[in-house]
Write the structure tokens for this entry.
Amino acid sequence: MREDNMLSIYSICHNEGANCRAAWESVKGVDELVAVIDSRTTDKTAEIAREFTDKIFYFDWIDDFSAMKNFAASKCSNNWVMHVGGAKTLEEGGIEKIRSIIKEHGSAHDAFKIKLVSKEFPAQFHYLPHLYRKDRVEYSGAIHEALTKPGFFAGDVVITWGQNPNHKDDPERNVRILEKELAKVRSPRNIFYLAREYYFRARYSEAVELFEEYVGVSKFLAEKGDAYLLLSRCLFQLNRGDDARAMCLKAIQTNPMHEEALRFMADLHYEPWKTKWRKLADAATNEDVLFVVRRLDNG
């Protein structure tokens, strides 16, 4: 019988040959590694996986990340599980940190937050429930999936993530899934993430419409602050400067410690207000900010 503090790492994979070796090297020493491969995969992901584990399974993609992750967790022998795969790598010594967290806090909590840091932009990071007990917690949501219990913070464990080249295989995947999900359930979360996708694709008018709907119904302040900021950015791109400033101010009123919002407010003003807003941004702590973007210089 396995001890309850043993750890399984699982990976969900679609044409991950360019990244998976680094991901799996970073979790060497874990009690178990499980690789679940999208059956559409055409590269050497499975061949590389066999260098690290004999627990390899296949999954027929159904436009649902939670379904694939929950399937992968079901193939793990241990109760404590975490996803590391694709362009994600665990920090050196991360397995030992995780074992300590489970040993010290695992009897009181079912999920823990992990710090995810952008490889391309190291000043960008956020905390996400990522380490969890599969017998008490699972993933929900077809995309931008989330655990069904909030994570407890027990100290930094860092996963670095980057952009997967395999996104080029299906560039409209996120929009397609979110549009289908929103048609089924018009939840604030689905509205927010589809609006973000429209923003990333410079579909500003469509993004504005959804962000305005979102801020009217959301009660999640951290996410709402991001929505006001992105709404402001969209309005600026549409040459609606006064409206952009008004929505950026809403973001700051939602969280006065939101550094990115304060810096964008500076960008939206001339002197002397530009310098005043920058000084406030320099003092911001990003407390309770959902997605942190920290300026590495004071320029």
Summary: The chain has a mean pLDDT of 95. Residues 100 and 228 are 38 Å apart (CA to CA).
